[in-house]
Amino acid sequence: MNFHNARFKAAYGTAAQLPESALPEVAFAGRSNVGKSSLLNRLMFRKGLAKVSGTPGKTATVNFYDVDGVDLVDLPGYGYAKRSKTELQRWSDLIEGYFDQDRQLALVVSLIDIRHDPSALDHDMVAFLVQSELPFAIALTKADKLSRQKALRQAAVIKKQLELPKGTPVILTSSSEGTGVDDLRRLIRDFVKGLASED
Known about the structure:
The protein is α/β, with parallel strands linked by helices. It is built from 5 helices and 7 strands; from the N terminus they run E-E-H-E-E-H-E-H-E-H-E-H. Strands 1-3-4-2-5-6-7 form a 7-stranded mixed beta sheet, sandwiched between helices.
């Protein structure tokens, strides 16, 4: 799986518009402003493929990127309050609608800002992934904002707070410095291979 071989594929604004899952998918979920687009760009060796915005909650669609025959799926950021209730409901329906469908999910990457304790919505997302028995990993973003020692301590705290199942991969990442990005690429490749071997 060559991450250099990446292109934007399509964006969908409602769950009903989502096409059938034809390729293995790796979904990225997280709070607004967690750095999802920046991490995706770093993963795909592109600066502006995933649109990075200074305004939290800008991703209002499910965005698909084809990376060498695997779909990376950017889900709308959750938890941004400055939108209308109708819009927030649409986002919620879109995220839930995506997971309710029969998708070829190789992995869900749940992004959490390492500088803060997980929010109630972060806890809800992890609980949902555990209950749904979906393969998932935690990417702790913005690790460059803390010293190495503090980042490791905070990672241990977050793991404990989330009560992660044993063996859940947790990767410290930084989009600006590239920390953990190679590890995340390796993890994605392994899970995609694992999905292929199940078929």
